[in-house]
């Protein structure tokens, strides 16, 4: 039985190394690849669902009928329609009237071919920013100089693990293995989350701040650590920039004030400050959920300051675990063009639509306005903020193409839906953000006869449009492999052959990040004081606390948290029968107090609403949830009754052009 090395390309910390068994042209088994030390537990249930065919998978191109439904069409017809419409729009309005919008549905170097195609088309308009993590990435870059962290297995060396706004029991399963190893060796664990998550079951201390107040919590803890003289003075003297002004700036955050802002008891503040100041080494794993607020970047800078002032950086078992971009050799993490609009405008590609404000910015484009959109690996109608505006912006266009394996909410708005490949149907090379391995994702089976990988779609379309195809990988595995080999050539230790043997550590990967204690910041130190943060983002030079824009004042409004779902990756998997059988489906988690105050009982259907939209959801009472917030996982869409993003405003984070998903207030009322 042939067994192949591969990897799961979903947007997830895991990026699991896989061994794939193929029998009779079908994938019949998936197991952990022993060459990937970071993913010892093997694929999760979502990964295992790859073994079962998805009955809803699209197997051929579909074209919208005048009555709104879809009919299957041949590739010839699909290519003819695209060529005719795109040429017409380019002639009348210019190439920038086409929006190219790519999401995070699947990783791989070949994703870059999309923009190569649009450049040949004469250009396009595309997005900047990202829905996921950029406030934290920018906070990290301005503070430490680079997004790197210790190898995942090094967590076992920590004496104190702080899981801050992170729920690895749902989102980073392999991290739980290393957390358990640390706990077995006697480490302590603190979880900081307004919810009592599954992860919190491991915690010695669960701290439940008001959402969006973590910046104040961190600065208040810094105040206590400094005033109790628990700082690492030598480390600060040698490696930290801006300690004195930082210490002055946190003086106002007395325990009383911090408790009042965050809702965390003073006794917990004292206990936590004592742990952070006396236990070593400390690893702080910061999640992405808490930087999805209008103060997210400054919040993350404040969290990192706790490690800087206690000397918990650059050592085994210590440090900031946010995102490890050591495998980002090709700039793939910044696909398609980068976090930010380019400083010097690109002559062909207009980078002018913020992913966080997709609907509003699409509608606002001028010179030329947008007339068409091409969407791949993305489902903006459920995943981007402000669903109603996103939908309106798509409907206002003259022509829409969506490449996807399912008829998603976004695909349902399209004129043409092109069927997407699966992870087993084209070879690609993928990096990771939770570990330092580069991996191959191998073609192990033929795609269904009418399914073409994106690279092939672009190649055929380029031919129809009369564009040069040189440099685009053509149809056939050999062409794709040649293209990939050319990308790997600058790295002597990397080749497809080598990757087929197993996962490869990124060239120069450090097991302990910043072990030399030299930081690639302007000063070469950890920058508590960052001029770059001021110049680039207009935030304070020191991490400060500002309440989130829609700040929760006591009253009838509740803060809506929309975390990720254990049983899906965003909008993927949730419709698959294997996972549907496990997943409780959409619902609104409420604290008992908030429910009782509104006459709501478990199982009742409620109307969740604000000025952007409304959603009807069944209620689950969650005894461990902090009062004042409600929780509905993101990822569900129209077929489940509507996306949570019907309720979110298109608003950017303070740094990095992220999306402030957790900055939204809602009314919750009984609905019958
Ligand atoms: N199963 C699964 N795994 C995934 C994904 C998925 O969709 N499903 N997605 C992947 C991707 S793309 C991402 S970005 C990561 C995200 O991984 P995580 O960061 O772990 O996930 P989130 O669910 O976004 O947020 C984590 C926690 O933050 C808490 N939180 C929200 N607001 C606040 C706040 O203001 N303060 C504090 N202290 N906590 C807060 C939430 O209650 C939640 O428990 O997961 C990756 N892994
Ligand atoms: N309210 C709220 N909204 C959120 C979040 C939140 O916390 N709260 N989290 C945000 C985060 S962290 C993220 S990362 C985004 C994710 O947002 P998206 O990147 O849009 O997410 P997905 O739903 O994972 O994938 C989009 C589509 O890609 C398709 N796809 C998968 N593989 C391929 C392929 O090989 N080719 C093509 N053409 N298509 C493919 C899938 O079928 C799926 O429909 O969502 C964000 N949205
Ligand atoms: Mo994400």
Number of helices: 21
What do we call the CATH topology of the largest domain?
A: Rossmann fold
Q: Biggest sheet, open or closed, and with what strands and sense? A: 8 strands, mixed
Radius of gyration, in angstroms, nearest whole number: 25 Å
The figure for the number of domains is 3
The CATH class of the largest domain, by name, is Alpha Beta
Side by side, the strands of the main sheet go 5-4-17-16-15-6-7-14
- Tell me the β content: 15-25%
The class by helix and strand makeup works out as alpha/beta
End-to-end separation: 57 Å
Shape: globular
Mean of residue pLDDT values? 96
The small molecules bound here are:
ligand MGD, molybdenum atom
Helix share of residues?
25-40%
By CATH, the architecture of the largest domain is named: 3-Layer(aba) Sandwich
Number of distinct beta strands: 27
**Unreliable residue runs:** 333-337
Explain what the structure shows:
The protein is 28% helix and 18% strand. With 672 residues, it is of the alpha/beta class. The chain folds into three domains: 62-132 and 327-505, 3-Layer(aba) Sandwich (Rossmann fold), CATH 3.40.50; 135-322, Dimethylsulfoxide Reductase, domain 2 (3-Layer(aba) Sandwich); 558-670, Barwin-like endoglucanases, CATH 2.40.40. The strands form six sheets. An eight-stranded mixed β-sheet has the order 5-4-17-16-15-6-7-14. A six-stranded mixed β-sheet has the order 23-25-24-27-22-26. Strands 10-9-8-12-13 form a five-stranded parallel β-sheet, sandwiched between helices. Helix 7 (214-227) runs antiparallel to helix 10 and helix 7 packs parallel to helix 12. It is globular and about 75 Å long. Bound molecules: ligand MGD (2 copies) and molybdenum atom. Molybdenum atom (MO) binds next to loops.
């Amino acid at each position: 039985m042939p067994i192949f090395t591969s990897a799961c390309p979903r947007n997830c910390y895991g990026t699991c190394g896989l061994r794939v068994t193929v029998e009779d042209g079908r994938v019949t088994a998936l197991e952990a690849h022993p060459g990937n030390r970071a993913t010892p537990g093997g694929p999760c249930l979502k990964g295992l669902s790859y073994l079962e065919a998805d009955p809803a998978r699209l197997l051929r191109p579909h074209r919208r009928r005048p009555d709104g439904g879809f009919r299957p069409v041949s590739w010839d017809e699909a290519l003819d329609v695209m060529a005719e419409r795109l040429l017409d729009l380019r002639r009348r309005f210019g190439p920038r009237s086409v929006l190219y919008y790519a999401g995070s549905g699947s990783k791989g170097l070949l994703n870059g071919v999309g923009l190569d195609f649009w450049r040949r088309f004469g250009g396009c308009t595309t997005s900047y920013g990202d829905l996921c993590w950029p406030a934290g990435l920018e906070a990290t870059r301005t503070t430490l100089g680079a997004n790197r962290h210790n190898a995942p297995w090094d967590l076992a060396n920590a004496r104190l693990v702080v899981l801050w706004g992170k729920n690895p029991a749902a989102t980073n399963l392999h991290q739980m293995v290393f957390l358990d190893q640390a706990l077995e060796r006697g480490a302590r664990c603190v979880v900081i989350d307004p919810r009592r998550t599954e992860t919190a079951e491991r915690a010695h201390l669960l701290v439940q701040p008001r959402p969006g107040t973590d910046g104040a919590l961190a600065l208040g803890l810094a105040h206590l650590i400094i005033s109790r003289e628990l700082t690492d003075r030598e480390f600060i003297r040698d490696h930290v920039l801006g300690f004195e002004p930082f210490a002055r700036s946190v003086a106002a955050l007395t325990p009383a004030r911090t408790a009042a802002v965050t809702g965390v008891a003073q006794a917990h503040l004292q206990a936590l400050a004592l742990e952070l100041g006396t236990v070593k080494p400390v690893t702080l794993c910061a999640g992405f959920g808490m930087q999805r607020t209008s103060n997210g970047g400054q919040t993350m800078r404040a969290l990192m300051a706790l490690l800087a002032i206690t000397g918990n950086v650059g050592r085994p078992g210590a440090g900031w675990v946010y995102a490890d971009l050591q495998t980002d050799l090709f700039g793939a993490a910044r696909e398609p063009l980068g976090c930010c609009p380019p400083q010097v405008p690109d002559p062909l590609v207009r980078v002018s639509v913020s992913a966080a404000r997709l609907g509003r910015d699409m509608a606002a484009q001028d010179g030329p306005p947008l007339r068409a959109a091409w969407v791949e690996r993305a489902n903006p109608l459920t995943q981007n903020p402000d669903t109603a505006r996103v939908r309106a912006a798509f409907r206002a266009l003259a022509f829409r193409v969506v490449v996807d394996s399912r008829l998603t909410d976004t695909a349902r708005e399209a004129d043409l839906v092109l069927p997407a490949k699966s992870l087993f149907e084209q070879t690609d090379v993928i990096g990771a953000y939770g570990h330092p391995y580069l991996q191959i994702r191998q073609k192990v089976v033929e795609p269904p006869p009418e399914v073409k990988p994106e690279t092939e779609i672009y190649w055929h379309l380029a031919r129809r449009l009369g564009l040069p195809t040189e440099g685009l990988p053509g149809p056939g595995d050999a062409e794709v492999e040649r293209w990939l080999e050319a990308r790997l050539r600058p790295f002597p230790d990397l080749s497809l052959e080598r990757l087929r043997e197993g996962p490869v550590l990124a060239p120069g990967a450090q097991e302990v990040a910043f072990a030399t204690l030299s930081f690639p910041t302007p000063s070469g130190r950890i920058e508590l004081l960052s001029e770059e943060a001021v110049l680039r983002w207009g935030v304070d030079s020191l991490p400060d606390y500002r309440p989130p824009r829609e700040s929760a004042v006591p009253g009838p409004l509740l803060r809506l948290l929309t975390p990720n779902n254990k049983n899906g990756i965003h909008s993927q998997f949730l419709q698959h029968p294997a996972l549907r059988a496990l997943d409780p489906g959409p619902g609104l988690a409420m604290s008992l107090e908030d429910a009782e105050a509104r006459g709501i009982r478990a199982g009742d259907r409620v109307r969740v609403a604000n000025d952007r939209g409304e959603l009807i959801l069944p209620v689950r009472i969650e005894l461990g949830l902090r009062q004042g917030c409600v929780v509905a996982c993101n990822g569900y869409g129209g077929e489940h009754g509507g996306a949570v993003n019907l309720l979110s405003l298109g608003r950017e984070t303070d740094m990095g052009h992220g999306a402030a998903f957790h900055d939204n207030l809602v009314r919750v009322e009984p609905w019958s």
